[in-house]
Design goal:
With 213 residues, this protein is an alpha/beta fold. It has helices spanning 38-41, 83-101, 119-129, 179-189, 206-212; strands at 14-17, 26-31, 53-58, 62-65, 73-76, 111-117, 137-141, 162-168, 194-198. The chain has a single domain (14-212), classed as Rossmann fold. It is globular, with a radius of gyration of 17 Å.
Amino acid sequence: MQKHQLTIPRTARYVTIGEINEQTENIWFVIHGYGQLAEFFIKKFKGLDDGKTVIIAPEALSRFYLKEFSGRVGATWMTREERDSEIIDYINYLNLLYDTVLQNTDVNKLKINILGFSQGTATVARWCMNEHIKYDRLILWAGYFGNGIQDVIAPEKLTDKEVVLCYGKEDEFLVKIDIKQYENDIQKAIPHVQIHTFEGGHTIDEELLLKIR
């Protein structure tokens, strides 16, 4: 038995709020977590829509039923199966999306924010590690890096970037670990990281989002 791979074209979906024009000052790429869909995830960011900000929510390429064989559908950026190939695929997808939506745009005149939520934190870190894109701020929201953040991005790649860590104090996933050690490990790797918390669980807190906008 021989295992083979074949690279094929795919149809990817993304959702936006706002349109890039002469008034645009801020771009937000917001990357959802495991089991979410872009059209629902992006609703958390409606408060950023001020006429000068455009929000872009890519959707992961792999969709599945959240329970059994019907009902609600979610998407995932990767699984452990063919892990390396899936990482390459989603980085290529995100790079193409970036190039497509920002074509004919002077990115040096924009502040570009890259936000990853939950599973999306590792996704955005690997994307930024690829160095294809110009961005100004990396926001890691409610993500856990089991082998340390250096497993997904070399900290030295972030020395000239603004880096923000956000999480809820009642996050049902993070409460299972040593939160203080979690913070310390990220601060040790990225000393200039800004840490923000909120009273809540595993979600995007819209009040905090507006605070750090």
